[in-house]
Design a protein that fits this description.
Elements lengths: L7 E6 L2 E6 L3 E5 L6 E2 L11 E5 L4 E5 L6 E4 L6 E3 L4 E3 L5 E7 L5 E7 L30 H16 L10 H8 L3 H17 L18 H10 L17 H4 L3
Parallel strand pairs: 3-4
Antiparallel strand pairs: 1-2, 1-11, 3-5, 5-6, 6-9, 7-8, 7-10, 10-11
Helix pairs in contact: 1-3, 1-4, 2-3
Amino acid sequence: MPDESVDEVLVAFKGDKWTVARGRLLTMGRSRACDVHLPDDEHLSRRAGSLLVLNDCVLVRNDSRHKPLVIRPPSGEDRVVEPGAAMTSLPFMVFSVVFTGRGGSTVTVRVDARSVTPSAGHHPGEVVTRAPETVTSPIVFTRVQRIVIAALCEPLLRRTGPRAVPATYAQIGRRLGRRPQYIRNVVKSLRESLAGHGVPGMTMDDEQAVHDDFRWALARWAMRSAVVGAEDLDDLPSDPEAGEDDGI
């Protein structure tokens, strides 16, 4: 018998489950007219959001007029969807839609879109051509730079929600047994090198730059470019005193 769950997205909330096929819409909100009935909390919108299953992802729409919602991946920073806006779930195969209720409490709807979301590097319907692949100039990092990048991104790779933020210079210093100023100098060298390669967000006149703090820009770029991943955390010392022995 064929698997009826193929090409269907699975949605779960408080023990209830829904299967949503491609092209179908699932609504979420405080109103009983919604498919996913959120708690009776006046801080939650009556029609808070909706999930539309597309060919290769889920379109998450914020149907509220005033309240933002959040797409929360298994690890890494939240994606905020403003009222009236929409955002796809790519590249995440599994994620949560988080609403904020009374007193800052959170309501979480879990979504499993693995059956419709392509794995990294594969795009349905992609035309194969004989044209050569796009080539970019390689960016070479020293061992010290790689370890600092890993320590910078460690909270984003291990945590989720509000705690998924880049490590501070002081936190990286303690992790690696180095002074914060040493870490600042390494990050400064990284920023200058990346700016020379045209990586956005790495120059003082970039709109996304906040003063001289480039931690977010560097961490986002490193993770999106697959420069650092969870496996790289194994290269970090197990305690601050190990930093000197590791030559960093």
